[in-house]
Each structure stands twice: as C-alpha cells, then as structure tokens.
C-alpha cells in the first residue's frame, strides 16, 4: 500500500525578493520576535538593564542572515575593499555581507578579528584573505553600546596596515557609542536605533 507524500507549505522567502524598505521592516519584525527581550538583565559591562538584545538568533536565521547581508551591503561606501568584525557577534554578519556581495556582482571579502591572538601557527589576530596595503575596511557590529568592542577590531585592522574610517551596526543602543566613534574620527551608522525596536515591539505585543 502506498501513501501520498505530504507536501508541506513553503514559507515566503521575503529576504530574497523584497525591496530595501520592505526588507528593513521585515527584519525589524524578526528582531522584535527573536532578539529583543524586556525584563531585568545584567549586561556584559555589569550594568543593569530593563531590556536585552541578542542579534545572533536573527543573524544566524536563514532569512535574517540574507536580509542583514542585503541591508548592510547597500550601506557600504563604494570604495569598500572588505568588511570585518570582532568575533563572535560580527561573524555571521560579515559572512552574510560577503556572500550577498558575490550574488550582487560586487565581491567583498570578510575578515574576522580574534579577541586574542591564535595560540599556534601564524598567531594571527585576523582571519581571512590578506588584502593590499591600506585597503579600505568597514567594521560591522551586531549591537553597539559604548562602542569599545568594535574599536578593538578597528585597532587590530589598523595595526595590520588597513584603513578603517567607518563602523556600521545592526542596532545602536544609544548609550554613547556614536559619540565615542565621533571622538575617534570614525563615521558611524546603524540600521536601527533601539527606539525603532522598542516601538515596534510594543506594537506587536
């Protein structure tokens, strides 16, 4: 006896075929659903917070990764030679941007910056292709609070002889990061401010 195969409904692949504005709104909804929580939390800095945002469930989500890659690629300066970020939060983001860039016929390699030098082999801080001297690298981050985390990546890249003039984050918590980057003569841009996420979160709940 044979049984008909069950055909499961296919989810809408919105991340691949929507315009940038719609894409931004869809990714915002996904961040509210999967990344943002309200309650009593202690941040890595030791400071208390009434909310917590962890972007990795979104940047490691198939549609979230594709949407992130498309949005951030569109924000890169025309002279960008590579994107880079400090492990671990930036790893899926730089990878997504690099993969999307290949499909957009604008191939941009990704670099991952270690927090500590590799303990064997070349003992390198930077993983990825070796670029030409003074190559323009944009540092990507998932969430910016004070800005100090991504600054470690900026410093490692500059020590390696690369040019870094801009940091782009998926989310800005608006807790001094933008002002810190300005003091460091770095341009800074974020896809979302925390108020965008909080407003949409309350609309959805």
TrEMBL record:
Chain ranges of the Phosphoribosyltransferase domain? 110-175
Reaction catalysed by this enzyme: orotidine 5'-phosphate + diphosphate = orotate + 5-phospho-alpha-D-ribose 1-diphosphate
User: Which keywords does UniProt give here?
Assistant: Glycosyltransferase, Magnesium, Pyrimidine biosynthesis, Transferase
Q: Name one GO molecular function term.
A: magnesium ion binding
The protein's name is: Orotate phosphoribosyltransferase
Q: What is its EC number?
A: 2.4.2.10
Q: Where does orotate bind?
A: 145, 173
GO biological process annotations for this chain's record? 'de novo' UMP biosynthetic process; pyrimidine nucleobase biosynthetic process
Q: Its family?
A: Belongs to the purine/pyrimidine phosphoribosyltransferase family. PyrE subfamily.
Q: Which organism is it from?
A: Brunnivagina elsteri CCALA 953
Binding site residues for 5-phospho-alpha-D-ribose 1-diphosphate: 114-115, 118, 120, 141-149
Q: What class of enzyme is it?
A: transferase
Cofactor(s) needed:
Mg(2+)
């Amino acid at each position: 006896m044979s049984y008909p195969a069950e055909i499961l409904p296919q989810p809408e692949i919105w991340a691949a075929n929507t315009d940038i504005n719609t894409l931004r709104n869809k990714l915002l909804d996904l961040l509210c659903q999967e990344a943002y929580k309200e309650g009593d939390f202690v941040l890595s800095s030791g400071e208390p917070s009434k909310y917590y945002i962890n972007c990795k469930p979104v940047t490691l989500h198939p549609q979230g990764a594709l949407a992130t890659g498309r949005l951030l690629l569109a924000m890169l300066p025309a002279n960008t030679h590579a994107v880079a970020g400090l492990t671990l939060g930036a790893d899926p983001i730089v990878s997504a941007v690099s993969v999307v860039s290949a499909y957009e016929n604008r191939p941009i390699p990704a670099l991952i910056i270690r927090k500590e030098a590799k303990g064997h082999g070349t003992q390198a801080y930077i993983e990825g292709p070796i670029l030409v001297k003074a190559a323009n690298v944009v540092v990507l981050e998932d969430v910016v609070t004070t800005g100090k985390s991504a600054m470690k990546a900026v410093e490692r890249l500059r020590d390696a002889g690369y040019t870094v003039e801009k940091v782009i984050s998926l989310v800005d918590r608006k807790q001094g990061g933008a002002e810190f980057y300005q003091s460091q003569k770095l341009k800074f841009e974020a896809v979302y401010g925390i108020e965008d996420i909080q407003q949409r979160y309350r609309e959805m709940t």
